[in-house]
């Protein structure tokens, strides 16, 4: 019997994703976007609640690898702060950065999850690698550049569809 493929699920924020959900899905590695997923765009440090979530995930045996389109000099300090490995200059949605992270993970694709705030970069890139994906709302859209705002507008029909999808792992999810 074939296992049913998990569609992209929506959570309001990273911290709304319970570690037990990851364990239930047999996730051993999370490829985690940085800007507006764990910290506001332009901030130097990760959000305190996200730091706690990452620590809890690591304590549960889940490997966290930060994946960003940003340069190494911008990604490495955050990775050091969180005690995580990273893949910088991923060129998402191209799958090449995610492939580098996959090699670092030393695990099977079926046990990896990508979490990010943008459909065009994070979710599409994950789908191109056949990796499970979770979409979260951005922490803050205030300091985003015009290209990010444009991408959000263009991908709104896709993100709305994901947001409206039933999510059995999230309280208050819309039911079909």
Structure keywords:
single chain, 176 residues, Rossmann fold, 6-stranded parallel β-sheet, globular
Describe what you observe in this structure.
The chain is α/β, with parallel strands linked by helices and 176 residues long. The chain has a single domain (9-163), classed as 3-Layer(aba) Sandwich (Rossmann fold). Helix content is 38%, strand content 15%. A 6-stranded parallel sheet has the order 1-6-5-2-3-4, sandwiched between helices. Helix 5 (119-128) links the parallel strand 5 (112-116) and strand 6 (132-136). It is globular, with a radius of gyration of 15 Å. It starts with 8 loop residues before the first strand and ends in a 13-residue tail after the last helix. The model has no long low-confidence stretch (mean pLDDT 90).
Radius of gyration: 15 Å
**Briefly, what CATH class?**
Alpha Beta
The low-confidence parts are none
Q: What overall form do the CA principal axes indicate?
A: globular
Structural class: alpha/beta
User: What is the total tally of β strands?
Assistant: 6
Beta-strand residue fraction: 5-15%
Q: How many domains, as an integer? A: 1
Short structural summary:
The protein has 176 residues and is an alpha/beta fold.
Task: Indicate the topology.
Elements: E1 9-11, H1 19-24, E2 29-33, H2 48-59, E3 63-67, H3 72-82, E4 85-87, H4 96-105, E5 112-116, H5 119-128, E6 132-136, H6 146-154, H7 156-163
Parallel strand pairs: 1-6, 2-3, 2-5, 3-4, 5-6
